[in-house]
Structure formats: C-alpha cells, structure tokens
Automatic annotation (TrEMBL):
<dbReference type="GO" id="GO:0008324">
    <property type="term" value="F:monoatomic cation transmembrane transporter activity"/>
</dbReference>
<dbReference type="GO" id="GO:0006813">
    <property type="term" value="P:potassium ion transport"/>
</dbReference>
<protein>
    <recommendedName>
        <fullName>Potassium uptake system protein</fullName>
    </recommendedName>
</protein>
<dbReference type="InterPro" id="IPR036721">
    <property type="entry name" value="RCK_C_sf"/>
</dbReference>
<dbReference type="InterPro" id="IPR006037">
    <property type="entry name" value="RCK_C"/>
</dbReference>
<dbReference type="InterPro" id="IPR003148">
    <property type="entry name" value="RCK_N"/>
</dbReference>
<dbReference type="InterPro" id="IPR050721">
    <property type="entry name" value="Trk_Ktr_HKT_K-transport"/>
</dbReference>
<dbReference type="InterPro" id="IPR036291">
    <property type="entry name" value="NAD(P)-bd_dom_sf"/>
</dbReference>
<feature type="domain" description="RCK C-terminal">
    <location>
        <begin position="134"/>
        <end position="228"/>
    </location>
</feature>
<dbReference type="Pfam" id="PF02080">
    <property type="entry name" value="TrkA_C"/>
</dbReference>
<dbReference type="Pfam" id="PF02254">
    <property type="entry name" value="TrkA_N"/>
</dbReference>
<feature type="domain" description="RCK N-terminal">
    <location>
        <begin position="1"/>
        <end position="117"/>
    </location>
</feature>
Length: 228
C-alpha cells in the first residue's frame, strides 16, 4: 500500500484520488476550496483545506511521509511550479505534476518534478490506441472531455437502424452524420460512386456496408466502441 497525496481537486485530481482510493491506497487530498474537499472526504483517508503554496502548511501536513504526490492545480502554472519545488524540498520521493504546455513541463523538470503528465493529450492518445481495431479516419478533440471521431461502421451494426445500434442508449455517443458512397449513373451510362453526407440522421436511418459514422461523445464513452 502506497501513501499518496493529491493536491488540487479539479476533475483530473478528483478522478485520480477516487481511483487510487478504490484501489485501497492511503490517499490524502488537499485543496483551497472547502466544497471540493468536503466532496472527496468520505472517499479518501484524509482531506485537508489548505494553501499548498504555503511551505509551513505542507510541512505540518506531513509531506515527507508520502511516497507520491500528484499536483493538479489547473491552469495556475506558477502555483504548480512552486508546489512541486516545495514537495521535493520537503522530501517527497516522487512528484507527478500536471502540465499545461511544453514550457510549463520544462520548468517543472528544472525544479525537480519526477514525472510530468498532460491529461488531455494522454487521453486523446489512449482513445486512439484503444480504437486501433476500428479504423479512425478523423479525430478532433473538442475539449478535455469530449471528442469527435469518424470511423468505419463496424460489421456488427450493418443492417441496423441507428436506434437499434444503441449507440446513444448503451454507449452514450451520438451519431451526428453518416457518410455513404452512393452510385450515380453518368450520362455515358457508366456508374460512379459519390460520397453523400447525411447530417443529423434520423433514428430510423439504416447503417449500410461501407458507411462511415461521425460520432460525438465523452472520451471514456467513445473508448467503449472497441467492444463493437
């Protein structure tokens, strides 16, 4: 069992703290926002409301006794750099800090950060890797939590209506468009295939062989599509 402290309880920090606690690690959480701390308090070993840029406050909280510290203080780059430096000076064995860009990451390394993470970028990479079995033609990260992908319609969905695919009810993703190769008879009698995009398809739209689906959803929901 490892002793871990999570500093900064935004979406990333809260998710990390809850996951680690569920895996039976000893987890302390720290944030200046009392409401955030109160929300996590029942789920972790200890929850403190304090300013992590205050060296005396960190020392009093016993930072030297922790194996790992995870710093996730949002867009406040100055605070994350200072907190990282203080944690190393106080003897924390491993400090993992969330960075916003490459310059931020470079400075964190300079002050002793053991590992820099980019949650949004890493999530996008993980999503892409998890869907390697499904050919992705386009991937657009709309935010840190939502993305738009264009994929080949899996064979398991062919012949089903969008409603029958349960993409929304089961997987939590929305089909915002269907791209389909449609045969067109030219003047000389030859046939050519042209791509037609069906925007906002109805629930009764039937998926055909060769269709491409444009899907919108949360990253964790899109990741579930690998089971199709």
């Amino acid at each position: 069992m490892r002793h871990i402290v999570v500093i900064g309880l935004g979406k990333f920090g809260s998710a990390i703290a809850e996951t680690l606690s569920n895996k039976e690690h000893e987890v302390m959480v720290i944030d200046r926002d009392e409401k955030r701390v109160e929300k996590l308090e029942p789920l972790v070993t200890q929850a403190l409301v304090l300013d992590a840029t205050d060296e005396d406050a960190l020392r009093a909280a016993g930072m030297k006794d922790f194996d790992v510290a995870i710093v996730s203080v949002g867009e406040d780059t100055e605070a994350s750099i200072l907190i990282t430096m203080l944690l190393k000076e106080l003897g924390v064995k491993e400090v993992v800090t969330k960075a916003t860009d490459q310059l931020h990451a470079k400075i964190l390394k300079k002050v002793g950060c053991d590992r820099v993470v980019f949650p949004e970028r890493d999530m996008g990479q993980r999503l892409a890797e998890s869907l390697m079995s499904t050919k992705i033609f386009d991937y657009i990260e709309l935010s840190s939590t939502h993305s738009l992908i264009e994929i080949d319609a899996p064979e398991s969905l062919e012949g089903k209506t969008l409603k029958e695919t349960e993409l929304r009810s089961k997987y939590g993703v929305s089909a915002i468009a269907v791209k389909r190769k449609t045969p067109i008879i030219k003047e000389d009698g030859d046939t050519e295939f042209r791509e037609v995009t069906i925007i906002a398809p109805s629930a009764d739209e039937e998926i055909q062989k060769g269709d491409r689906l444009c899907l919108l959803g949360r990253n964790e929901d899109l990741e579930k599509l690998k089971t199709l």
